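Late entry, coenzyme A complex.
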Amino acid sequence: MTERRTDRLLLRQWRDDDLDALAAIDADPEVMRWIGDGSVRDRAQTLMALARFAAAWSNRGYGPFAAEADGVLIGWVGLLVPTFLPEIMPAVEIGWRLARGAWGRGLATEGARAVLAFAFDDAGLDRVVSVCHVENTASERVMTKLGMHLDRDTVVPASGVPVHVYAIDRAVQT
Ligand SMILES: CC(C)(COP(=O)(O)OP(=O)(O)OC[C@H]1O[C@@H](n2cnc3c(N)ncnc32)[C@H](O)[C@@H]1OP(=O)(O)O)[C@@H](O)C(=O)NCCC(=O)NCCS
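Prediction complete; structure with ligand written out below:
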């Protein structure tokens, strides 16, 4: 089973009993503010997301890790395929979504460092991108702390949302 431990996090595979905690995160308007069109997800949508996570792990050998701190699910950090942005495809994206109570303690960056190591050392990727809404300063800051560089500014065609695309290559992983 693919798991990673950091100082404060267990990055693990998903369990059926993660649904309640993840649904609460996905239902928080502050968490979802800069994701997609900013709308919250209902429980059925979170259940579908969990099914997509499981399919990603089984089809590609990578996906979003469940992130647990002190035995509690606080969100996810992991690898996705950014099909919503055709101009950068093929690509693999690192992303993160944490419960509001977990913000501001460096946990996203800590988890993402472990996921980048997994991406380059275990998944065999040469390049990882990350995409954020231009106003999502916290997420952009995680990208810069990881040593990622701004690849381009562009617009998501389906929504018209302006985004930053950051990238990091295997050779310059920090
Ligand atoms: C983005 C997110 C994962 C960051 O999690 P986190 O654990 O708080 O991140 P970290 O503590 O590792 O780093 C956040 C950095 O952003 C900074 N930051 C946070 N909010 C900020 C703001 N409004 N303006 C400027 N900087 C901000 C923090 O100070 C920190 O930088 P520092 O270490 O230099 O002080 C979290 O805010 C989240 O889950 N947001 C909702 C979901 C989301 O937007 N996901 C990303 C979609 S692209």
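The chain is about 30% helix and 30% strand. Will revisit in the morning.
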